[in-house]
Amino acid sequence: MASSANQENVKGYSKSAWSWGKGYFEKIVNVVICVAKDAKKLGEEDPRRIVHSFKVGLAITLVSLFYYFDFLYEGFGVAAMWAVMTVVVVFEFSVGATLGKGVNRGIATLLGGALGVAAHRLTSLTGENAESIMLGLSVFCISALATFLRFFPKLKARYDYGLLIFILTFSLISVSGYRDDEVIEMAHKRLSTVMIGGSATALICIFICPIWAGEDLHNLTATNIEKLAICLEGFGQEYFETRDDKHKMNKASLDGYVSVLNVKGTEEMLVNSAKWEPRHGRFRYRHPWGQYLKVGRSIRECAYRIDALNCYLNSEMQVKEPCTKMSSECSCALRELAKGLKTMTRAMSAVPISESKNCGQE
């Protein structure tokens, strides 16, 4: 009896362990499937993300050759790691963002290294007793000043990363020079490896399936105008539907303006990135990228007015013909503006705008 009871307990434990293991395995499989679906969705939404991932992998592989080949490693030694780090932190999705970070890092490394060497040389003249004190004061003053400059809006928008790298490079060179006399060689290796990593990143980013922030900004602005046109057109149609039919209509066209209200940060980021980009496609040097911010503000103002119009969808008092015509003409004008912006031609929107004004006066 005791042996049979023990056998039953063993069977029960085995069954419980099997059930637990099976459930745990199913959870892992479900997680893997969800991750795969999310990855597929991200790739389908913007295939450029996949291309960007391969470009980053290629750039890191190329600069890693400094570790694989002895004749390259002998020239830089462990400092070759800075080239790999430069690729990792500089390579961004668009060409403009990559060039902006690369230029910031290169200039900041040059200035920070030069100033660090100068600080080391000057403080060494004060003698061994005062050298550490003077070096600490110089690090404090330069770091505090550079950090304060990061709070200026214009500097923060375009040069925040450069100021950060300047502080890092200056501190490393000046402090390391206190124990190591080869401070110039250290600064030279750091600058050289940063330039090598930045150059490899820029070449791959520009010449292999480039992603231009200027084009993204241009298309985003035109798309936002089209969304407002669709919203106005949908508003004119839904405004005069009966209450029984309203629930059958698709609300996606009317809710399109909501996404327009939340793109300010994206527009500012794209403008800052586009200013770093060289001439490409239809965009020449000194292209007025700042005007896109003004257009974006006007688009958001229009979106806020459309948001206010939604309050009148369930209104009992409806002025049918003038409102229908005004919505139609405004939608037509916005479509013409979006078309003109996409093709970079003068939009023929004067007639629809004048017609919508006449409807408003009626």
Automatic annotation (TrEMBL):
GO terms for cellular component: membrane. Its main location: membrane. Keywords: Ion channel, Ion transport, Membrane, Transmembrane, Transmembrane helix, Transport. The keyword Cell membrane does not apply. The lineage of its organism: Eukaryota, Viridiplantae, Streptophyta, Embryophyta, Tracheophyta. It comes from Sesamum angustifolium. This is Aluminum-activated malate transporter 2. InterPro entries: ALMT. The chain crosses the membrane at residues 50-69, 75-95, 107-127, 133-152, 159-179, 191-213.
